[in-house]
Amino acid sequence: MSRLVKRRILKRRTAGSSGFVVGVFAACVLSTCGALAQPGGPAVVIAARLVERTVAAKQSFVGSIEPTKRATIGSAVSGRVTEFPVEAGDRVEKGEKLAQLLTATISLELAAAEAELEYRRQMLAELENGSRPEEVEQARARMAAANSRFEFATARRDRVQRVFLENRAVTDDEVGEAVSLAAEAEEAYAEAKAAHSLLVAGPREEVIAQSRAQVKIQEAVVERLRDQLAKYTIITRFAGYVVTEHTEIGAWVSSGDPVAEVVAVDRVEAVAQVSMQSVNYLRPGERVEINIPALEGRSFEGVVVTTVPQGDLRSRTFPVKVLLENEINDAGPLLKPGMIAHAVLPTGAPRTVLLAPKDAVVLDQSRRSMFVVDKASGEGQTGAVSLVPVTLGVASGPWIEVLGGVSAGQLVVVQGNERLRPGQEVKVSRVVDDPLAAAAKPSVSPVSSR
């Protein structure tokens, strides 16, 4: 055989071999390599049951995070700032000092008023305690002495008058002097007697009442000065964060001037603008989902507080306030006023629907379908899958409403449905009720075990 003939024969054999390999590869592609995927048994999948739940249509509304309290704290009095211990961004507790004004003059006035109050209180105490026993005894002794002088003057007057009448041994002047001294002694005795009675009776109730009134007047003066002095120390009325500084040490502030702005963010409100068609489906106390794009889409659960009954005349939307618990760490509050918030709120009446995990939905261009496991009702069981077209409805977290040829309790494939074919046999390795729990566990490959 010539060399030319041998070359032609070898070339034909080589070409035939290449065609055979290409044909095998094409067959493998057309059959989705089914023979390689499950040469030894059914595909292993994770399934979930379809459930019926009462849900409402929901929509995401754009809003913003706002503090529950915001106050621009000002000065109630005029004065010079001597202390300003806070800065923007600092956390302050309720009653903490924001600024201190100069208090030298008001402190002196308060000291004088307190001394005057103490003086009046002691005077009142003296009146309320009444006369001391020693004072009463002293008055009694004076009364007795006055009585003795009165008796002596009376006796002398009588003698002088008798002598004058009997023998004219005394002059008219001596008689007059004796009568006058007796009358003076009588009046002195009456005065001493009255003084003794006053001390025994004690102060009059009217005098005590007047003294009490003077004490109350002075107490009011002291309280006014103390209140005024307290106003020289400017404090915050609630815990929060300083967001704006309006003064500095050495500055003069007048009554009413702002000192600092404080916001309370231990709890915050997500305020969303809701359309008038949807606002009537919201109820106070309802728990809703709030998504924060700035926190990589992190979700929070909040409570609807109120719907403001005054809408925007241009957009016809109403503010809805949702209360959220904030997270406070060393870096400050996690939710900060001004952040964009997406509030997922109901937009329709609640109704009972059939829900499936979103992972069970297979997307094929414009069609939506799911692989339903037939003749298998639990873990470890084997059955064939059928591809059932469905229509999607309301989403509820990781679940979504499905309409079509499916019913509650059926098993649908949530992991491993990427390579399945209608009629293919599968083995259910695990049945999950919560798709989030399934996502947290290691995924099971649908490749068949050998």
TrEMBL record:
User: InterPro entries in the record, alphabetically?
Assistant: Beta-barrel_RND_2 (IPR058792), RND_pump_MFP (IPR006143)
What protein am I looking at? Multidrug resistance protein MdtE
| NCBIfam families in the cross-refs | RND_mfp (TIGR01730)
The scientific name of the source species is: Pseudobythopirellula maris
Cite the CusB-like beta-barrel domain residue spans from the record. 271-345
**Sorted UniProt keywords:** Coiled coil
Q: Does the keyword NADP apply?
A: no
Name a Pfam family for this protein.
Beta-barrel_RND_2
Family according to the record? Belongs to the membrane fusion protein (MFP) (TC 8.A.1) family.
Molecular function via GO: efflux transmembrane transporter activity
Keyword Coiled coil assigned: yes
**Entry-linked PANTHER family:** HLYD FAMILY OF SECRETION PROTEINS, MULTIDRUG RESISTANCE PROTEIN MDTA
Which Gene3D superfamilies did the record assign? 2.40.30.170, 2.40.420.20, 2.40.50.100, Helix hairpin bin
Q: Which residues does UniProt call coiled coil?
A: 110-156
Q: Name one GO cellular component term.
A: efflux pump complex
